[in-house]
Fold each of these.
Amino acid sequence: MSKAKPTVLLEHYLKELKLPTFLREYRKIAEISQQDRSDYQTFLLRLVEREIQDRVTRARERRIKAAKFPLIKTLDSFDFKAQASISQPLVRELMRGEYIDQRENVLLIGNSGTGKTHLATALAFSACQQGRKVRFYSATGMVTTLLERREERQLERFNRQLERLELIVLDELGYIPFSKAGAELLFEVVSRAYERTSLIMTTNLPFESWTEILGSQRLTGALLDRLTHRIHLLEANGESYRLKESRKRARRNNHTTNTKGGKQ
Ligand code: ADP
Ligand code: MG
């Protein structure tokens, strides 16, 4: 029997068993285990541990990719001092994700540029890292998808896919009014998510104005009723961060120009 045969067979079986880390690492771990005179169990344990670690990492990466974040934002880069009305302790508590176990929702209300999308992304990203199934949609993107799926007679299938998620982000409700059909389909999503899937919604609109986007007062009432039954409210009523930053930049530039001007 040729010497190569056990190796070829082993590698074939490891592929068959879908143990890519075993396959990649077994020679190295065997060498290490030989050097430190570890027994067979320790050798096997080392390999199993690597395989599990890699599996956890791969699953996390898959979940983050599947969530389709437009941009990854985390809490590290969020300046709470710039947005005093946002409760830091509440945000930190929400980062732990217990609200998802309780099927509770989060609503971020505030003007444009106040960090609502940033915080929604940070919360959803943290949920992904905790092993939860998450999907990020812009509210208009969700409505467009719903209308398309209905057209393709795939609506029920799509709604069932949504039901398998643990957290759905609906970002930026309020900039574009929905058609009657669009608003009804969105209502169905919120309705089906009720007490089953957590929602994070962001909006620039106070509750009184939601009818402007959703059309019917009756439907808006019913949607808000479900959404707000178990809700954590984060209100950003400060200044736009973008605006403040660009003003700061402009001041700095002016200052530089003036100083340079003064020297000449
Ligand atoms: P909104 O969704 O409320 O319109 P965004 O979350 O899109 O606002 O914020 C606009 C930009 O400003 C983003 O690049 C975001 O990361 C940044 N930003 C907003 N608020 C803060 C903050 N408090 N600290 C750090 N960056 C912020
Ligand atoms: Mg936004």
Amino acid sequence: MIQIQTKLQAKRIADIKDKISTLVVFVHKKGKKTEAMGATAHIADLLDNALVEGMSFSDLKKGIFLRGAGEAQFNNVLLVGLDEKFKDLEDVRRIAATIYQLMKTNKSRSSGIVFDGLIKGFKNSTEVARAFTEGVLLAAYKFDSYKTKKTKDKKDTENNAPDFKVDSIDFLLSAKTKQAGVSDGIKAGQIIAECVNFSRKLGDTPGNLMTPEILAHEAQEAAKGTKLKVTVWNKEKIKKERFGGLLGVSLGSAVDPRFIILEYNGAAKSKKPVCFVGKGLTFDSGGISIKPSNSMEEMKFDKCGGANVIGAILAIAKLKLKINVIGYVPSTENMPGPLANKPGDILVARNGKTVEVDNTDAEGRLILMDALSYASEQKPAVIFDAATLTGACVVALGNSYTGCFTRDKKIRQKISQAAEKSGEAVWHMPINDNFVEDMKGTYADLNNISSFKGAGASTAAAFLEQFVEKGIPWAHFDIAGTAWHVGNRLNYCPKKGASGAIIRTFVELAKLYA
Ligand code: BES
Ligand code: ZN
Ligand code: ZN
């Protein structure tokens, strides 16, 4: 783990001599002029020379690494340009990832960041420190537990950087910056990034090594040392509790399902909890309505909704937020074994509604229906669910946005506010009575696929809505497009692999209920 800490800039000569290899200086654009904040005259000269030598501001935006720049006790200087478009915390996250990657490619184990130059224009230095820390630690994530040889190949690794370990990043603070606030920001950023990276690992681990039983065990292990209580139901209990959807989907598989409950009480018992529900499909073959073999291996990521709910609640517990939350993760495989659901089969959900399964590949909604009914029984303040639910959402929004479905105007506004803070891209999508109509059943109350073509993400959301008790505010997040392989858009996410989508937004949402 990379050490991130604060140091007073004025003390740097005495304190950190010979310890830091690279000084990172931010260069701001002021019209045609540039200004390197907190820099010495020597660096200003280096900058002028670099610009005179034909480098432009757009080169600076990518970062210019000056090796052996001769700046006092630093071996190298990294100039990073911030233009007028650099304005919010998501930009901080991305610039942090860029700096981390430049440290790797330039084999710099340690760096000192001139923090004054970074916080210019921001009101809250704690938040900037938090976002920067998140950016670095999220960018440093790697899933290589199953490589027996750690490769040193230059072409290898995500982000095209050679395999090189960065040890430390120091925020160099001027006397006027409150060190305690910055340290708090670092701590919060570390917790969030750690939890996102934990969820990513759950997502990246393949189906044979991350069964429902193992997923539940991982949640229990991770909760140790926190105030989080984890309860796990086995197949018998799931049956006894009349979770007909979760049980039905699991029957085609040789491994048993689990229902994972995570409870955290950070507020008075009387305060209604915020519920999070996540789809934990450890592998989705499609079942009898089997998927094409092309890219089927990606369906190990079908547990990301559940994995990310686990990560979000873990983060909420570790941040000690003053709020009560409950997480529900129904978890199973969807396989075409002898007892598998057959098209036409009818299942009975926890709330008594009957569902005809006309396509066994539309299984996510079947396991979520029981979890949403059960969550409703707890009379929560609100329910949020996350699921890699539909290919239709990927068609609509690609890997650019998570689709969000709710009819509740108040929580829609809260979601926009939370997403603005988290920096995650969320797009509000339609859900209305027409879509509910499309899901009405022929031989049962509901059908698990729409009777009409198109709008597959909305009809899926309308189906889920039938299991949320009226009066309880609810929003559904379809992360099918954003849960994995988003590195082409977000430089702090792996090019290939789980992203941890929606965890940061869920944490921000939870704060709005504190
Ligand atoms: N897990 C899939 C959704 C999915 C597909 C996510 C591709 C990411 C990429 C889900 O269980 C599923 O297969 N849904 C079907 C529903 C359809 C049969 C109504 C789909 O989207 O094709
Ligand atoms: Zn499916
Ligand atoms: Zn699925």
